[in-house]
Write a structure and sequence with these properties.
Blueprint (H helix, E strand, L loop, with lengths): L33 H20 L9 E4 L3 H12 L5 E5 L2 H10 L3 E4 L5 H9 L9 E3 L3 H4 L2
Parallel strand pairs: 1-2, 1-4, 2-3
Helix pairs in contact: 1-2, 2-3
């Protein structure tokens, strides 16, 4: 099947009206603030695609998410919706770590803590295995331990 993404392979992404090939693509957007919904088209699809390529294979495995900003919190929410049971989120901001817990992360680690490595081992029951997936949703500088 040939890719047909609107705005990439076919015109229409900035149009007020456009034709769609099937009614399943129609969404009633009444009551949805475009300023809130618009970023989802990029950030959520980016996170979803990454997760589909790197989900844990079993319920005993962990998914690590580095960064609890918009992408990281989206990753927690989408991973939970995809059935991931064990998610550990890492950040340097306690409020963002609380948001990750509220979004469904099973555990969190503040990377500024002197015992961050021990916290990670404790949360994951010994530390993540080398084959378990990690998503980096943070700046490169904050991702290097």
């Amino acid at each position: 099947m040939k890719a047909q993404s609107v705005g990439v392979f076919r015109p229409g992404d900035y149009a007020e009206y456009m034709l769609v090939p099937h009614p399943k693509f129609l969404v009633n957007a009444d009551g949805i603030d475009p300023a809130v919904a618009t970023p989802y088209a990029c950030s959520s699809v980016t996170v979803y695609n990454a997760l589909k390529k790197a989900l844990p294979e079993g319920d005993d495995e962990w998914l690590g998410i580095m960064g609890c900003g918009g992408l990281g919190l989206g990753a927690v929410t989408i991973a939970k919706a995809l059935g991931v049971k064990n998610i550990v989120s890492c950040d340097i901001n306690d409020a963002k770590l609380q948001a990750a817990r509220d979004s469904g992360a099973a555990g969190t680690v503040n990377l500024k803590a002197a015992d961050a490595h021990q916290q990670l081992r404790s949360v994951t029951g010994g530390g993540p295995k080398s084959e378990e997936p990690w998503m980096i949703c943070a700046t490169a500088r904050s991702s290097v331990a």
